[in-house]
Every structure is written in C-alpha cells, then in structure tokens.
Amino acid sequence: MEKITSRNNPKIKYACSLKNDRSSAFVLAEGLRLCEDAARNQVAIESCFVSEKMAQSAACASILQASAQCYEITDAVCDKLADTKNPQGIFCICKKPQALSEVEPAGKYLLLENVRDPGNFGTMLRTAEAFGLSGMIACGCCDPFGAKAMRASMGAVFRFPVIEAENELVFLQEAKRKGMSLYCSVIDSDAADVATLAGKSGMITAVGNEANGLSEEILALGTPVTIPMAGRAESFNASQAATVLMYEMSK
C-alpha cells in the first residue's frame, strides 16, 4: 500500500476539494460507519485513505477490498482530511448514487424546503428511510452529501433516493398533473389533523425550514395539515415535525 506523508500531496488536495464541491460526482466520506455503508451498498469507491492503525484493523478489511486504490496516511494527513475533531483514520472518495429526477405517482415522499441545518437534514433522511418512504425531495436545502448531513443520515444518503428539485413549483405542478396530492405542514389549528395522512398513497408532504416554515408559493399548491398539541409549546422543530408526519404517512 502506497504511503502518503505530505499534506500537499495532489491526491490529498483533491480529496479535500470534494468537501465543498457540491457539483462533483464524487464525495469524501469520513469514518468507519459511512465507509462501511458505502462498501456494503456497492457504492463505487475510487480511493481509500487509512491510518496505519486503522489499516491493521479487521473492521476496515471489506472497505479496503472494495476500494480501487488504497493509501496509508500519516496522522498529519489524517487531520488535513478530517471534518471531525477526533477522526477514526479512514476516508473514502465515493461516487455519489445516481440522482433521481422525478417521483413515482403512487409513492410517498417528504419534501424539504430550504432546510439548511445539515444535522436536521440528515436525521430526516434517516427517518424517511426507516419509515419506508419512497424518497425525499430537497428544494433549496443544504448539501445532502455535506459531511455533517452524511453523518446524521447514518449512511442513508448512500441508500435512500434524494431528488434535488431546482424549481420546486414546476416540480410540484408536474407531480400534481400525475395525480399526486401535496400536503403542507403548518402551525394552524384550523388545518386538517396530520392523522388524515394515514392510509394514503401518491402523496408529497412538505416541511419548511427551521425558522420560516414553507413559502407562500408552496402553501398555495397544497392542503394544509397540522400536528395537534395539547401542551404549551407552540411548535416542533423541523426534524420533530417531519418525524410525526412520516409516521402518519407510513400507516
């Protein structure tokens, strides 16, 4: 295995550049869990960078085997690649799964509008997979393959379909032409109870960003639904609300 000792090595520079290159077909995954998920789900791994200690661990054997190229790196190079404070010493350059561009008319989808918190985004992605939804639609959101979003998704980003809609209104109008229903999560006691989502198919349920909720343009296209609350709290955060919505959708 070739050893890389310089933080300025071209391969290391390229790997670091992927952290902020949303347009690239490749992404830098960090940590044993994410790299294992990539290998397990037959994601193409272009390169693997591993510390000497990690290279000797049986836990990363399947990752090394799945990688086209493997490099041993020093602690200094590891710190250069890392997004976390205490890196585990393993990184993979992975090819992103092929992005979807349209919904299945009979499917169930969660739409996120302008959700900028990568932790919330990744958590909702993981939850959508757990509840068996058909996919997630991201409109103006953070990068699904950003380091924090990937970690929060617990590898779901490599397994679960994400559609990035450049023009959400055109996208939703097309979905409605296919016979799909749009439901919009709001804080409004006059809106329909979220329980009305149960038993339906061919649906998209929309959740807005953490501070401002959904845009007026999206609200105008859909049926408002709300989560009844008996306590004194005024609202859930985006991730909590999405979890309740997806639970009802999954029934």
Question: What can be said about this structure in brief?
Answer:
By secondary structure, the chain is an alpha/beta fold.
Describe the fold and architecture.
By secondary structure, the chain is an alpha/beta fold. The protein folds into two domains: 2-95, 2-Layer Sandwich (60s Ribosomal Protein L30, Chain: A), CATH 3.30.1330.30; 108-250, 3-Layer(aba) Sandwich (Alpha/beta knot), CATH 3.40.1280. Helix content is 32%, strand content 23%. It has ten helices and twelve strands. The chain has helices spanning 10-17, 32-40, 52-55, 61-66, 75-81, 118-130, 147-153, 168-177, 216-219, 238-250; strands at residues 2-4, 26-30, 45-51, 67-73, 90-95, 108-113, 135-139, 162-164, 181-185, 192-193, 203-207, 223-226. The strands form two sheets. It has a seven-stranded parallel beta sheet, with helices on both faces. A five-stranded mixed beta sheet has the order 1-4-3-5-2. Helix 7 links the parallel strand 7 (135-139) and strand 8 (162-164). Helix 6 runs parallel beside helix 7 and helix 6 (118-130) runs parallel beside helix 10. The N and C termini lie far apart (50 Å).
